[in-house]
Amino acid sequence: MRKALTISMIAVGIALMVISYFGLTAPWGARGVANSNPRMQFAPLVFVVGVMMAFGSALVYEMLPDRFDRD
Amino acid sequence: MPAAINEALLPRGVGRLTRGWTIFILAMVAISALGWYAYIREFTEGMAVTGMRDVGTMGGATWGLYITFVVYFVGVSFAGITIAVVIRLFKLDHLRPLARMAEVLTVVSLVLGAIAIVADLGQPFRGMINLFRYARPQSPFFGTFTMVIAGYLFASLVYLWLTSRRDAAILAQRPSRLRWLHRIVAAGYADTPAERERHSRATFWLAISILPMLVVAHSTLGFVFGLQVGRPGWYSALQAPAFVVLAGVSGTGVLIILAAIVRRMMPRDVGLTTQVFAWLGRFMMLLLFVYVYFMVTELLTATYAGSEREVQVTREMLWGEYSWIFWSSVGLLVTPLIGLTVQSIRRSWSVPWLVASGIAVNLGAVGKRYLIAVPSQTHGQLLPYVDGSYWPTWVEFAVVASLLAFGALVIGVFMKVLPIVELEEAGDA
Which end of chain A is less congested by CB atoms within 10 angstroms, N or C? Predict the structure, then answer.
C-alpha cells in the first residue's frame, strides 16, 4: 500500500509536469502572438502541483501509518 | 502526577530563552518592522519611492537592489541544501552537525528570495496570479518560479521536516512548554527499526532527486540574464554556471558564519570541530578558484573583441561609475581566496579567519550580483538612449535590511524550537 501510493504519486506528479509543460502551456516553436498564451489557463500551476506531488510522495512513504503497510 | 516542566532538560539550548537571545530577537523584530513600514510606503505610493526607473526612456534600472538580493538569497540556499544532501548521500558523518543548519538556511533563504521578488513587483498580487496563469515554459522565468520558488522550496521543506522528526520525537518525551509542538513535528515517529529504514530510504531518494533540480533551478536564474541577447553585459554562456558557482561561495560563507555562532552558543561540544570548518574552507576555496577563473574569462572575452556596447558596460564596471563596487567585490573575493589557499597549504585553519572570509565573500557576492543586475540596464542600451543611473533609496535599503533581519529572526526562533544541530544516535538528549 505504502509503495503503491508513493509510486502513484510520483507517476501522477511527473505526468502532470509533462502534460502541462508540453501540452497545456504556450506551444513550443509556434509563431504568432495568438500562440503566446497558454492553451489552458493556469497550466503553469498544474506544473507546480506536479512538482509538489512528486516530492510530496516522500511524505507519504515515510509518514503513512504502519497499519496501511501490507508489503 | 505529571513531571515538572523544565526546559533545562531539553538539549542544544532548545526552549531556554536567554537575555541575549531575547534582545537579539527584539532587535530583529524592530528592523523587520521598519522594513514593513518601508514596504507599505512602496505599496501605497508606488515604485516612485524607490530608486528604480524605466530603462532607457527614464534613464534608470527596473531591476535594482531587490533583484540583487533575490539572486543572492537563492544563491545562499544553493550551498545549504547541497551540503546537507552531500552529507547524507555520502555519509560524511563528521559533517553531520552542519546538516540541520544547512537545511534551515536553505528554507529561510528561499523564503527571503521569494519575498524579495514580491517587493520588486509594483502590484505583487497581479504578478503572483499571472505567473501561475500565463507563464511561458520557453521563458527562464518559468523555471525560476516553478523550480526554485515552488519545487525547490517545497522539496527543501519536506526534507527538513523528515530529517527533524526523530529529534522532535526525542524532545517530545521530555516535559516542556514546547512538547505539543514537538509532538506535531514528530508526527507519530517512534524511532523503530522499520521507521529508521524508511526514513533512510526516503531521504536518500529525496536527496538524489533534489541535486539535479538544484542545478536546473539555479541555471534558470542565470538564464534569466544570460539569454537576453539585446542586453550587453548579460548575454553570455557563462552566466548560468557562474551563478551556480558564486551561489556556492556565498552560501558556504553564510554556513561558516552560522556554524561559528552555533559553536559559540552551545553549552557543550556539538561536533563543530575545526576540521568541520576546514572542510567548509576547502569547499569555499575550490569554488572561489572556479569563480575567479570564470570572472577573468568573462572580462577578457568582453574587453578583447566585444561589441561597442559590451565594451562600454565593461568599461563602466572597471573604470567608471561602478568601478568602486567592482574592485571592492574583487578584493572581497580574492583576499579570502589567498588566505584560504595559505591555510590549506599550511594545513592550519583559523575559525575567526574563516568567519571573516565568510563575511567578505558574502559582501563580494552581493556586489557582484549588483553588478550583474544594474550596469547593463543603465549603460547597456542598444537603442540611442543616453546612459542612465541607479541608486537605491532608503525604502529599498530598509526592505532589504528587514529581509536579512527576518531571516536571522526565523533562524533564531528555530534554534529555540528544534535542535539546530542534530542529536546524536546514542541518547544525546
Answer: C
Q: Residue B305: count other Cβ atoms within 10 Å of its Cβ.
A: 9
**Which candidate from A25, A28, A55 shows the least CB-CB separation from B155?**
A55
CA B233 to mean position of chain CA atoms: 24
- Please answer yes or no on whether B162 and A65 come within 8 Å at the CB atom: no
Answer yes or no: is B145 within a domain.
Answer: yes
H helix or E strand, kind and range, residue B110: helix B96-120
With residue B204 as reference, give the H or E element that holds it. helix B193-226
Q: What is the mean pLDDT of chain A?
A: 85
- Which structural domain range is residue A50 located in? 2-68
Burial of B354 (0-12, 13-18, 19+ CB in 10 A): buried
pLDDT digits (tens, 9 = 90+) for A34-60: 777 888 888 889 999 999 999 999 999
- Nearest chain A CA: its distance from B89 CA (Å): 16
Identify whether B82 is part of a domain: yes
Give me the number of domains chain A comprises: 1
Q: Fill in the amino acid letter for B217.
A: A
Give the number of beta-carbon pairs within 8 Å between A and B: 77
Question: Containing domain of residue B117, as a range?
Answer: 13-381+397-417
Query: What digits encode the pLDDT tens for the residues B369-424?
Result: 999 999 999 988 888 888 888 999 999 999 999 999 999 999 999 999 999 988 87
Q: How many CB atoms lie within 10 A of CB B80?
A: 27
Q: Is residue B386 part of a domain?
A: no
| Closest residue to A58, CB basis, from B135, B151, B202 | B202
Q: Cβ contact (<8 Å) for A55 and B146? A: no
C-alpha A25/C-alpha A43 separation (Å) is: 5
**Closest of A33, A5, A34, A54 to residue B154, by C-alpha:** A54
Number of domains forming the structure of chain B: 1
B233 within 8 A of B306, measured Cβ to Cβ: no
pLDDT at B271 exceeding the cut of 90? no
CATH code of the domain containing B22: 1.20.1630.10
DSSP notation for B294-360: HHHHHHHHHHHH--HHHHHHHHHHHTSTTHHHHHHHHHHHHHHHHHHHHHHHHT---HHHHHHHHHH
Residues B197, A69 contacting (CB under 8 angstroms):
no
pTM for the complete prediction? 0.91
**Three cell numbers, residue A17:** 509536469
Flag whether pLDDT at B426 surpasses 60: no
Could you tell me if the ipTM is greater than 0.85? yes
